[in-house]
């Protein structure tokens, strides 16, 4: 294991990614609990992340003494460099000309950190982002690379194996950064590089068995990648102690329910309760137009249905969820303060307390693309593994204004045609998420010799890394024209199609 001590940088997760890409397991812990993590994980190497604070500020974060005492190599980045220098007896001064963005380092002396990557005398581009600077190095350290505004671009103590950089090797703007991290992880720390999805699968199965024992586990299946992978993995571990519940709230895409039921019941032989709750959900949503009320209504009903189904199978001690790593990393926030609720995301968050269940979350250590890799390892079909995200409240939030069966049926058909065309043109995997929405207005058109007065369908497609920010996808106009023609011709009730060219921010991905 490589332990990453987080000082609150926006890009700490990228360090974990780079380490894992080397086939080495890595875990991020906030600096406050790093002492305990050093003991628990017994890492072969430790990385200090960057962070927004200044080490000259009173009460700014420090690395635990245990990290230095562990006797394993340390790679300290940016803020990590400054706190390491200070804690080992050096000096740091704030307020120097900040080198934000691209900079160039000149390599003056060799170091194990860039052995085989950078040569003495060479100049290389890196990404800097800090204004403080080390003015006196601790004993045993020497500067091996410099840049114009960063005399300590790289400072190392080869004997104690402590490597510090003022730049960020983890971002793609530092072109050789991944190679430096590889050197640190594989050569300097000696990590083996045998971590991968096969190893993860075996280890996860062992842990699930250990955690669950003979108890029953219940898992809400949405048809999305995360809950599907979690369910298949848990089933492999404990077989029929697992029951999956698939709630069909009548707000699913065309053919979705059949696909999920076929895959899990027939292909995987996993006990699956398919709850047809369309009447219940659509009844409760009748006349509701406010997006937050829609979300909350759906969230509450989902919990009711789930609870009722759990009772029917005699209760379960555990609830399985497909929670991912980015959701669980404790963030190190220096600003604090409550953030504004943009949307109430629907999940099964209220369930564990209400039903007194413990959680099984076998994907807690993984990033989204790692979950996809695990899904492939488990033999899940590619069409499932590569799916775009689909929100819990489903089509309800793609139907602004009142939700009616008529509108849902129109929306399902339009959405199906749109995605069919996207797949046919080989664009599906390039797009993070694509879907249709139906607007609560009718407009006038002409078809043949007749006047029409029908609904407008909006098309959305975005690229994104994590859903937090997004850009609209730049389809070519001929493609959009073809989709519009097909929708208007094939879907009764639609006579106009528009494309959403808003990015996030200021728009959100979903329309409600
Ligand atoms: P927004 O619309 O907030 O969406 O830009 C960001 C991502 O989150 C998905 N989303 C949801 N997922 N329950 C979910 O499970 C929800 O209530 C929910 N609302 C939005 C959305 O599809 C996009 O991928």
From TrEMBL:
Gene from which the chain derives: guaA
Quaternary data: Homodimer.
Pathway given in the UniProt record: Purine metabolism; GMP biosynthesis; GMP from XMP (L-Gln route): step 1/1
SUPFAM superfamilies: Adenine nucleotide alpha hydrolases-like, Class I glutamine amidotransferase-like, GMP synthetase C-terminal dimerisation domain
InterPro entries registered for this protein in UniProt: Class_I_gatase-like (IPR029062), GATASE (IPR017926), GMP_synth_C (IPR001674), GMP_synth_GATase (IPR004739), GMP_synthase (IPR022955), GMPS_ATP_PPase_dom (IPR025777), NAD/GMP_synthase (IPR022310), Rossmann-like_a/b/a_fold (IPR014729)
Active site per database record: 78, 168, 170
Keywords on record: ATP-binding, Glutamine amidotransferase, GMP biosynthesis, Ligase, Nucleotide-binding, Purine biosynthesis
GO molecular function per UniProt: ATP binding; GMP synthase activity
Residue ranges of every copy of the GMPS ATP-PPase domain listed in the record: 195-387
Protein name per Swiss-Prot or TrEMBL: GMP synthase [glutamine-hydrolyzing]
Any one Gene Ontology cellular component term annotated for this protein: cytosol
CDD domains hit by this protein: GATase1_GMP_Synthase, GMP_synthase_C
Function: Catalyzes the synthesis of GMP from XMP.
Lineage, top ranks: Bacteria, Pseudomonadati, Pseudomonadota, Alphaproteobacteria, Hyphomicrobiales
HAMAP family found in the cross-reference section: GMP_synthase
EC number: 6.3.5.2
Domain of life where this protein originates: Bacteria
Catalytic activities: XMP + L-glutamine + ATP + H2O = GMP + L-glutamate + AMP + diphosphate + 2 H(+)
Binding site for ATP: 222-228
UniProt KW ATP-binding keyword: yes
The species this protein was found in: Ancylobacter novellus (strain ATCC 8093 / DSM 506 / JCM 20403 / CCM 1077 / IAM 12100 / NBRC 12443 / NCIMB 10456) (Starkeya novella)
